[in-house]
Amino acid sequence: MDALNRRLDPEVVVAGTLLILSCLSILFMSHLVAAPKVLFGRSLTAIAPSLFPYLILTSLAVLNAVFLLQCSLRPEKIWLEGSGESNGWKRGALLFGVMLFYALTMTVFGFFISSALSLAMMSMLVGNRSPVGIVLTAVVPPILLYLVATRVLAVSLPELSEIEFFIAGVLGETGQVKGASP
Amino acid sequence: MLKRLLSTLAVAASTALLGIAGPALADYPEKPITMVIPLGAGGSHDLNARVITSTIPQFINQAMIVRLTPGAGGQKGTQEVSKSPSDGYTLLFTHNYIDMLQQHVEKLPYDPMKDFVPIARINYAPIAVIVRADSPYKTFEEVVAAAKKKPGSVRMAHSGNWGALFVPAAQIMKARDAYFNMVPYQGGGPALQALLSGDADISMGFPSAIGSLVAAGKIRVLATAGAKRIYPDVPTLAEVGVEGDIGFMHRIVMAPAGTPKDVVAKLEAAFSALLKDKTYNRMMKRLGENTDYMSGSDYQKLREKQLGAYKDLVAKITK
Amino acid sequence: MIEQFMQGLAMAMRPDTVLWMCAGLFGGMLVGALPGFTTLMAMAILLPISFFLDPLVGIPFLLGVYKGGIFGGSIPAILVSMPGTGAAVATTIDGYQLTKKGQSRKALDIALVSSVFGDTFSDIATILMIFPIALLVMQFGPPEIFAVLLLSLVIIAVTSGGNPIKSLIMILFGIWLSFIGTDPLGGVERFTFGLFDLKSGIPLLPMLIGVFAIPEIASVVMRSNQGQALAAVVGERLSWSELKRCFRTMCRSSVIGASIGIVPGLGQVVAAMMGYSAAKNASKTPENFGKGEIEGVAAAESANNAVNGPTLVPLLTLGIPGDNVTAILLGAFVAQGLRPGPQLFEEHGATVFGILIAMVIANLLFLVIGYLSVPFFSRLVTVKNAILVPVVIMFAFAGAYVFRSDSFDLLMLVAFGAIGLIARAARFNLMPMVMGFILGPPMEYAFGQTMAMAQNAPLQFLFTERIGMVGVLAITPVIGILLWRRMRSVSMS
Q1: C447 to chain B, minimum CA–CA distance in Å?
Q2: Torsion angle of the four alpha carbons B16, B19, B21, B26, in this order, in degrees rounded to the nearest 10
Q3: Which of C152, C208, C319, C447 is most buried by a 10 A CB count?
Q4: How many whole angstroms separate alpha carbon C269 and alpha carbon B180?
Q5: Of the candidates C246, B312, C400, C255, which has an alpha carbon nearest to the alpha carbon of residue A111?
Q6: Omega into C441 within 30° of 0, i.e. cis?
Q7: In degrees rounded to 5, what are phi and psi of residue B117?
Q8: Backbone φ, ψ for residue B123 (5° rounding)
């Protein structure tokens, strides 16, 4: 294990990042945490809103420093396990790309369209090559989930107004009494 | 950034489409209506809403769906409705403190007066000042005297800053120039429990919540809100020198401003029709709530008064 | 009293009560199995239905939905490492490892048996000791809650495995994340960078799904080939000898869970973690925990279900709902003309005992319903990845969205997925982070309340009024050091 590898170990990088972030937050605390409010000339709360952040961030900084020190003193105790799963990272990155697409488009395209597109892409990513299979995976689950969520569980999912009207029309709900009225 | 751009495009596209399908609005409502509650599940608003949504479909010929959007002291759900299209398919079910008081203590991402029109006040709940039955304080005056003698020696349990128990307490403190030690709890239930366990000296509660404890002789009521006495031997807040629109929680339904007039009229008609529904009245009574309905336009007048009163209150006590 | 109890027993045996309870249990289980679609939501939706039913049908029906929902929540936790609530996190640790080993059926079986066991234990304890518990509940105020939360976090840090410094770092990081938003006491903004979306804080559900499920899905995607499934087999059912092996753990966890249920506002998350930590500490082979140990699932599930009985006590004896679930039950009681409070037992003693006994019956019914459903659920993991992965992600996204109806939460979900992957690569355990995130805010809140109660003289306040809190605070470091030394000696040998 040479020196460069040691410095780039994810463990050290994460601890170092947390150390830097917590130190920066302590330094800029007054900008990050608003001042407490007043009531009849006294503070509205018994403890300042910045008290806990100071306590937690200071301990975090100290512990990270201790940990980094431990790493450099006794590296042999820390680099025993391998981190594994290095192959296939490309597919992992693609998966995150698809998920990001899904997250950004759900309210814009509505639940159904955005789900169908994302599900189709993910199904292909995992290795589905049959067009019928992809279409079925992409279309059937979103419709079922949408109907169960909105009609049985009575929670709303984001959906385009036009599709909502269309579904209400297909289900024959328009202009009818619907609901749990006794 | 991209997200905002995309959503603007989508809104533009759907308004264009709706514009083409203009006459469709005449048949409002054509799909289920969503009622957003900016508060948590299981609270009194949630329970009230369940009663409304299970009885109102017969008057509007559509289902009404509840959507709970708690967060940031009610601002999250309120903002969501303020941003949604004013087509009558998204309504807000809130209360007067979130609606009119919050703007004076925080910077809001919406303007409650400009962004909303009231549809109906469903009901209201008057607050009561309470102590434990074995408390040394026998009357409201004794509490005030103790709080004046040694400021902060009286511990008051409330349900969160600028909430339904906090505001009346602040109004009392302002009117009587006394100072209570305000200890927050996460909701009215835990605050009541703190009073009973002796962690707090006084608290407040709505009659629907404290009724059984009063009947069992566990707590004593020192004063109640409202013009009339609720308990014959307990004074009203006005009688003990705390005057004004104090200690009422109004549960109100609002729509985004700009909702077409005929849509508003249809909604108002549906909510007022609830009053004649037997099931609605029976269920509300069982929850311990009244059905003191007020039309949107009447409530708007009350709202305008609240605006000034709360501004004044906040300005005086947050110095 | 005895007479009312016998009347109640007769009332609870009605066939329509049993039938509706079955419907509630089954429906609750299905809804609970969808992450994000919480039991709470299901109960609020079904509440109006209970208004029109007889009290001894409507309330047991709602209780059935609740009980079914809690077990339902452990189904995705075990099968796809997707805990829908904080209470299911401890179940995920060993449950998903069992699924990966091809023993999903065994994992679901032990989860079912131990949750029914914990629930029944706490229901019976509650029926027998409802009035002593009611007195005990009153002894816990904010100072005691703070002390117990601190103790819990110390125990989690030392027993979660690996280097305790790393666990502590993750706990503190979790608490830091919980600061984002408005502070729980005064409502001022912290670490929001002026973004409104951050003002109400980071939502729990996207974090849970993001850090526990997304990395697992990603690793499946990275390894997967056409036609492969998450697990090839579902394995055997739970055997008698395995059940017997877990019996001590289940008893221990039930006692822990019921005790934690007495402290208002702590609840299932703390109970599950404490039950799990205690089982690990008592085990002769603690190194197996976290690698698919059925005792781990049993410990977590019996502890979080044992909380349920005592949390009903303040509702029944004082009419005070302690959380959202009991608030809905309060609505159901009131709508039936049963006003919970001091007079409930005098006025409606038989009915209330009937409802409590119906809870015990519901548990036994659920053993049957669950046992019949497990084979179906456990088979889900043998579905081809090409179908399972997209569908699981769709449920993750829909669940994250319906939790608060906010598309910002979807971005949070993806971001926490990334954090989960990074933490894994750096061999940091994410469970302490989630626990810090969940338990940090109530701890800060309780601390603020304590300071408010104390006015300007905290020490005087503590030593004159709150000697109990001082006691718990004093033993915290002792317990921490003892546990740490034991954990270290085990990992050395």
Answers
A1: 11
A2: 150
A3: C208
A4: 34
A5: C400
A6: no
A7: -120, 130
A8: -165, 180
Q: Within 13 Å, how many C-alpha atoms sit on residue B307's CB side?
A: 11
Strand arrangement of the beta sheet that strand B155-158 belongs to = B181-184, B155-158, B202-205, B128-132, B219-224
- Mutation for A interface: C43, C178, C389, C416, most A CBs within 10 A: C389
Q: Does B186 touch chain A (CB under 8 A)?
A: no
Amino acid letter, C237: R
Q: Which helix (H) or strand (E) holds A71?
A: helix A51-73
SS3 C372: helix
Rounded to whole angstroms, what are the CA distances from B227 to A100, A134, B126, B241, B307?
57, 68, 10, 13, 21
Q: How big is chain B by its Cα radius of gyration, in Å?
A: 21
Q: Is the pLDDT of residue A178 over 50?
A: no
| Residue showing tokens 């407490």 | A36
Cα–Cα distance measured from residue A116 to residue C90, given in angstroms and rounded to the nearest whole number = 33
Residues for chain C: how many in total? 493
Q: Give C168-211 pLDDT, tens digit per residue.
A: 999 999 999 999 988 878 778 899 888 878 877 898 999 999 99
Query: How far does the CA of residue A140 sit from the closest CA of chain B (Å)?
Result: 23
Task: Write down the pTM of the prediction.
Answer: 0.86
| A155 touches C38 (CB < 8 A) | no
Q: Which residue has the tokens 């708690």?
A: B70
Give B255's strand partners. Answer: B117
Rounded to the nearest angstrom, the minimum Cα separation between C149 and chain A is 15
Q: How far is CA A177 from the centre of its chain?
A: 40
Phi, psi of B264 (to 5 degrees): -60, -45
Enumerate residue ranges in chain B where pLDDT < 50: 1-25
Q: What is the DSSP letter of C239?
A: P
> What local confidence, expressed as pLDDT, does residue A76 receive?
55
Sheet of B294-295, strands arranged across: B64-68, B33-37, B90-95, B248-256, B116-126, B294-295
Work out the pLDDT band at A111, boundaries 50, 70, 90.
very high
C339 vs C351: CA distance, rounded Å: 12
The per-residue DSSP string of B82-136 comes to: HHS-SSSSEEEEEEHIIIIIHHHHS--SS-HHHHEEEEEEEEEEE-EEEEETT-S
Question: Hey, what long-range contacts does C242-249 have (CB within 8 A, 24 or more apart)?
Answer: C242/C106, C242/C110, C242/C294, C243/C110, C243/C113, C245/C294, C245/C295, C246/C110, C246/C114, C246/C294, C246/C295, C246/C298, C248/C282, C249/C279, C249/C282, C249/C295, C249/C298, C249/C299, C249/C302
Residues of A in Cβ contact (< 8 Å) with B280: none
Q: Does any CB of chain A come closer than 8 Å to the CB of residue C425?
A: yes
Summarize the confidence of residues C227-238 as an average pLDDT: 76
Q: Which tokens is C365 given?
A: 């019914």
With cut-offs at 50, 70 and 90, classify the pLDDT of residue C22: very high
* Cβ-based neighbours of C262, under 8 Å, separated by 6 or more: C133, C136, C137, C140, C310, C313
Q: What are the CA-CA distances from residue C359 to residues C12, C191, C301 (Å)?
A: 9, 45, 18
Q: Which of A37, A39, A47 is the best substitution to test chain B (most B C-beta atoms within 10 A)?
A: A39
Buried b / exposed e over C462-492, threshold 16 CB at 10 Å, is beeebeebeebbeebeeebeebbeebeeeee
In whole angstroms, what is the distance from residue B201 CA to residue B110 CA? 38
What residues of chain C lie within 8 A of the CB of B53, using their CB?
48
CB nearest to C187's CB, from B66, B73, B185: B73
Distance CA C387, CA C383 (A): 7
Q: Mean pLDDT over residues C307-311, rounded? A: 90
Inspect the interface and report whether the beta carbons of C200 and B283 lie closer than 8 Å: no
Dist. CA A99–CA C413, nearest whole Å: 9
C-beta of residue B210 within 8 angstroms of C-beta of residue B130:
yes
Shortest distance between the Cα of A99 and any Cα of chain B, in A, equals 14
